[in-house]
Amino acid sequence: MKKPELLVTPIELANMEKLIEAGADAFIVGEQRYGLRLAGEFSRDDIKQAIQIAHKAGKKVYVAMNAIFHNEKVDELADYLSFLNEVSVDAVVFGDPAVLMTAREVAPDMKLHWNTETTATNWYTCNYWGRKGAKRAVLARELSMDAIIETKENAEVEIEVQVHGMTCMFQSKRTLLGNYFEYQGKALEIENRRQNKNMFLVDDERDNKYPIFEDENGTHIMSPNDICIIDELEEMMEAGIDSFKIDGILKSSEYIVEVTKKYRQAIDLCAEDNEKYNEIKDDLLEEIEEIQPINRRLDTGFFFKETVY
User: Fold this and answer.
1) Angle in degrees, CA 6, 267, 255, rounded to 5
2) Helix H or strand E encompassing 91
3) Tens of pLDDT, residues 96-119
4) Which of 8, 92, 281, 293 has CB atoms 3.0–4.6 Å from 24's, for a disulfide?
5) Cα Rg, the chain, nearest whole Å
6) Which residues contact 16 (CB under 8 A, 6 or more apart)?
């Protein structure tokens, strides 16, 4: 059985060697000026060092350029892509076609991963962007397991699936969401808004707390629970999914390392000793549950939700 790439989001350079030891195969890094919802901020010098660390260990580094670029930033893309090409980044993750067009001009051999967060929902669309130059499609988090398998069966590009971590429910370019709700006197309120750290949108009716933060790209509201399907990897591995992603946004370095170790164990066992994997997969899930942050329950996201037409 083919082993998928284990893709992880490091918080800082110091975190990378520990993640390599934990079993990560590839990393997504970048800076918020060009990338959305990164676990950590990596300057150009940090990216250069990250690539050196990863390549020395035989691992890969992808740089996020998946923000939406308005006119004032478009002229910066050529310089940034040229830099990434010079330091031998393994791929660039993009959503805005401006990145694709610019890459054709300044880095025509650059490997591109198409990720628009929500619109990669079928194999036809993935293949369309493949014909435009993308080598990989990052599937939307709202897909069921059946839809993921069908997409992989018909895809002409690599397929990446998020298997762990929180997902984005809402993004706005505005940075006044907290003020709006408070002014309207809604039931929803912002906790710790003034600290701009560890903020939550509280929904007492559903007993949910939605992490919320604001950065250069606006306001982001995240899911109340974390995806975790460490005990449900078999079907996707049999289908040949190319990459499993652990998203470590708003988590500690220690947490990301421990989760990476457990997914490394699960992937290796599923590929090499399927019977053993089925014996311990529930234990691995329980071990992750034990290190979950307060207010972050685990669930299976949309993987097993029924599709309604």
Assistant:
1) 60
2) strand 91-94
3) 999 999 999 999 999 999 999 999
4) 8
5) 19
6) 10, 27, 50, 53, 54
Q: Is 126 helix (H, G, I), strand (E, B) or coil?
A: helix
What are the CA-CA distances from residue 122 to residues 25, 45, 213, 264 (Å)? Answer: 26, 37, 30, 28
Within a 10 A sphere around the Cβ of 97, how many other Cβ atoms? Answer: 13
Hey, is 205 helix, strand or coil?
A: coil
In the chain, which ranges are continuous DSSP H helix?
Answer: 13-22, 44-56, 71-74, 77-86, 97-106, 123-132, 145-154, 177-184, 234-239, 253-272, 274-291
Return the bridge partners of 209, or none: 202
Q: 115-161: per-residue pLDDT in tens?
A: 999 999 999 999 999 999 999 999 999 999 999 999 999 999 999 99
d(CA 104, CA 241): 27
What is the spatial distance between Cα 232 and Cα 286, in angstroms, rounded to a whole number?
A: 14
Are 248 and 230 contacting, i.e. CB atoms less than 8 angstroms apart? no
Do residues 79 and 55 touch, judged by C-beta distance below 8 A? no
Angle, CA 292 vertex, CA 10 and CA 244 arms, to 5°: 45
3-state helix, strand, coil in the chain (%, to 5): 40, 20, 40
Q: Which amino acid is at 236?
A: M
DSSP 193: G
Tokens 């606006």, located at residue:
218
**H-run or E-run covering 7:** strand 5-8
For residue range 190-242, list pLDDT tens digits in order. 555 444 557 787 888 888 888 988 888 888 889 999 999 999 999 999 999 99
Of 135, 137, 101, 98, nearest to 117 (Cα)?
Answer: 137
Helix (H) or strand (E) holding 6: strand 5-8
Angle between helices 253-272 and 13-22 (to 10 degrees): 30
- Of residues 160, 146, 43, 173, the one with CA closest to residue 113: 160
Distance CA 18, CA 25 (A): 12
* Tokens found for residue 169: 């429910």
